Amino acid sequence: MIKLTRHFYTRDVLEVAPGLLGKYLVLQTSGACNKFLITDVEAYRGTDDLACHASKGLTKRTEPMFRQGGILYIYLIYGMYYMLNIVTSTENNPQAVLIRGIEGCNGPGKLTKKLGIDQSFNREDLIDSNRIWVIDTNNTVSYKTSPRIGVDYAGDYWKNLHWRFYI
DNA sequence: AGCAAGATCGGT
DNA sequence: CCGATCTTGCTG
Question: Which of A22, A27, A49, A54 would bridge with A141, disulfide CB 3.0–4.6 Å?
């Protein structure tokens, strides 16, 4: 099983997000190497998407999303939970995939706690990193879609798009 | 400098 | 449904 390359991530988030389903997130921590099947993701796409943090423009927080795909965008929400996002597309085209679930663990806040992912992972490059990356599989998965979770504030149009993809 | 809200979660 | 908990971004 091969580590995903830059090309995988520099595509549009609506291709990358469902493409991550069935692949393995790999964590190398203190001697142990663990892999987790990705089962639930959401797409956040560009400055027009009112649910996407990039709709606020380029800020200190959202800056990682404006970079080339393949790096992580981590932020703290509700003062308690780190959210794990994978940046996609090309520079100055802010998009990201929120990892909502892995096999045996539902919820973006719960999974970062379980995996020990904190702010130090912000901007980590999945191609270069020696502690986190994603590997391809031969899995052919069928998936469902739904509106994104927790974005009612984004207005009727953006909150109702089926940009959540899950197994 | 102050404030309201948030890509959540677990307990009533 | 509600509180925990604190950073962010907007307003003044």
Answer: A22
Dig out the tokens for A122 from the structure: 């912000």
Q: Does the nearest atom of strand B lie within 7 Å of A85's Cβ?
A: yes
Of A117, A147, A141, nearest in space to A22 by CA: A141
pLDDT tens digits, residue range A27-69? 998 889 999 999 999 999 999 999 999 999 999 999 999 999 9
Residue-range domains of chain A with CATH: 6-166 (3.10.300.10)
Q: Do A11 and A97 contact (CB within 8 A), yes or no?
A: no
Residue A164 burial (C-beta neighbours within 10 Å; 0-12, 13-18, 19+):
buried
User: Can you name the residues that pair with A99 across neighbouring β-strands?
Assistant: A41
pTM for the model stands at 0.96
Strand C closer than 7 A to residue A76 Cβ:
yes
Strand C reaches within 7 A of the A79 CB:
yes
The neighbour count for residue A157, using CB atoms within 10 Å, is: 11
